[in-house]
Amino acid sequence: MIFTLRGPQRTKMDKVFKTGDLVKFSDGGGEVGLVVSRVRALMHYTSPQPEDTDLYEILLNSGKKISVHKMYLKKVGEDG
User: Fold this and answer.
1) Per the domain annotation, does 80 fall within a domain?
2) Burial 14-39 (b: 16+ CB within 10 A, else e)
3) What CATH number is attached to the domain comprising 22?
4) pLDDT below 50 — which residues of the chain?
5) What is the C-alpha separation between 29 and 12, in angstroms, rounded?
6) Contacts of 34 (CB under 8 A, 6+ apart)
7) Which residue, 59, 64, 63, 69, is CA-closest to 33?
8) Is 6 part of any domain?
9) pTM score, two decimals?
10) Domain assignment of residue 3, yes or no
11) Which of 64, 74, 76, 78 has the most CB atoms around it within 10 Å of its CB?
12) How far is it, in rounded angstroms, from Cα 78 to Cα 35?
């Protein structure tokens, strides 16, 4: 936690994946996918343009594309 003049603030541990990264699911299922893109969306109806979300579009070995939240992904080769 970081303390500032405005009070305590949590630090975000950002996982950022790039297009082309090989990822696996953190549940240990063993399936590997390829990051195709980051999902963009209007966060609020007053937003002037779409913004990056915490979802990634993943291409699976079966050829299906799914959207997965970053907390369920980790890069292939990462320990832990």
Assistant:
1) no
2) eeebeeeeebbeeeeeeeebbbeebe
3) 2.30.30
4) 1, 3, 11
5) 26
6) 20, 21, 22, 23, 58, 59
7) 59
8) no
9) 0.73
10) no
11) 74
12) 15
> What is the token pair recorded at 45?
């109806």
Domain hosting 55: range is: 15-75
Residue type, 41: A
pLDDT of residue 34: 95
Count of structural domains, the chain: 1
Assigned token pair, 34:
């390829």
Q: Name the pairing type of β-strands 65-69 and 51-60.
A: antiparallel
Query: Which among 35, 7, 13 has a CA at the least distance from the CA of 80?
Result: 13
Q: What is the pLDDT of residue 11?
A: 47
Residue 79 token pair: 């320990």
